[in-house]
Batch of 2 targets.
Target 1
Amino acid sequence: MTLLSPVDAALEGLRIMRRHPVVVLAWAGFSLVTLPLLGLLVKMVLGEQDRADLALRSSSADPREILDIVSRLGGVMVLLIMLALVLGAILSAAIMRAVLHPEQRRWAYLRVGREDLRLLVVSLIHWAATLMVMVIPGGVVALGTALLGGTPVAGWFGFLGALTVIGLSTWVAVRLSLLAPHAFMVGHIDPRAAWLLTHGQFWRLLAMLVIVIVLCVIVSILGATVSSIVGAVLAGGLEDPIAGGPAASHPRLILALLANLLLAPVFLTLQAVIVTSAPAAALRQLTAGEA
C-alpha cells in the first residue's frame, strides 16, 4: 500500500506558486474580477433591508427567524450561492489541472467545461454531507442543551454532543477529501472509489489538512498585515498633518479600503491554491503506482 506524505502533499500549493508565479497571478486576476462582481450582485439583488436582516438574523438561535429569512430570500440566495460555486469550481479545476496535468498550461489552466461541472456537483455533495453530519446534529445538540438548561446533565450533554459532532464531521471530511480530485482525474464522480482510496490513510490525510489550515491562517495574517501596511503607506503622503480632523482621515480610509479590496482576492486565491492543491497532490501520490 502506498503511504501518503502529509507534508509533501500540503506543500504542493507553495510549489505551484514557486513554479508558476505568472499563472497564480492570472488566477488572482480572475478572483479580482469575479469576487467584486459577485459582491456587487449581492448588494444589487438583496437590497439594503435584506442585507440588514441577514446580518441581524445570521447568528439567531430561533429557527422561526431563520426559516423566515430563508423563505423570503431562498431563491435569491440559492442563485447567488450557485454562482459563487460555479466561479469556485472554475478556479478549483484550474488549480487541479496544474497539479495533475501540468502540461495543459494554455490559458493559465482556466477552462469552462465538464470538469468544472463535475467539481460543482462535488461541491454540492460536500454541502449535503456538511448538512447531514454537522449542521443538523449540531442543531440537535444545541436544542437538547437548551431544553436541558438548568439541569445537572445540560453541560455534559452539550460537551459530549459537541465532541461527537466535531469527531463525526472531521471523519467524514477526511474520508471525502479526495472526492474532488478523484472526480477530476477519472472523469466521473465516484464517491465510493474516492472513499476507499482514503482507507488506511486517515491520520496522514488529517495531518495534511491540519498543515493546510495552518498555512491558510498564515496567509490570512500576512494578507491582513500587507493590506494594512500598503493602505498606510499609500495614504501617508496624502494626509494633511496640520489640518487634522475627520476630513484629513478620509484619504487614508479610502486608500486603506481600496488596498484591502485589491489585495483580499489575491490572498484568497493563494489560500485556494493551498487548499485545492493538497488533496490533488495526495491523490497523485496514492495513485502513482497504478497503470
Target 2
Amino acid sequence: MPARPLAVVAIAAAVALSLVGCTRTQPAAPQTVTTTITEQPHRDTPAATPTPGTTAGRAVDPSAYAERGGFYFLSPSGQWKCGILPGDGTANAGCHGPFPADVPTVPGSGAPDTMVRPNSVVVGSGPGMARFLSIGDPRYYPGPHTRVLPYGLVLRVGELQCSIDEAKGVTCDNTASHHGFTVSTTAVDLR
C-alpha cells in the first residue's frame, strides 16, 4: 500500500476536528427542587420583631425537629450540633461545636476545681445570660434522624428560638429575657 502524503492526513484530521466542534448538544432540562415549610404562629415574639442576634426568618414546624424529648438540629455545615430542651423553669437551648481558640476556660464537668475548654454554650429560660459550660453528657448532640436547620429559618419552642446565618453562625435567644448567644468557629457573642 502506498504511503499517504502527510498533508492529506493533516487535512483529514483538521476536518474531523472542525466537525466535532460543530456538533450541537441539547442543554439539560432544568430541575426544580421544592421545599415545603410550615409556618407556626408564635404568641410571644412576632416574626417581624426579632430579638437581638436573631434573624427575622420564617418559623419551621418544631415537630419536624422533635426527638428524645427535645428539639434537635444540625447546622448546614455539620459543625454545630444544637438542641432546645423544654422543661418547667429549666428549658434551655445550647450547642456543641468547634469554639474559637480564645474562649475562656470553665470549671470541668465532674472536676469543678480544674479549668477546661468548654464543650457547650447554653442560654436558659431564666433571667441569666448565656454561658459556656463543660458538661459530661452530650445533651445537645442529635439523634440518628436529626435534620439540618436551613440558613435563615427559625426553630421556636416556647420562649427559646434558634436560627443559623451563614456569615454569623448559630444564634439562640430567650425571647423573654433577651439573653442569648451567637457562636461560630471564629467569634462568640454571649448576651
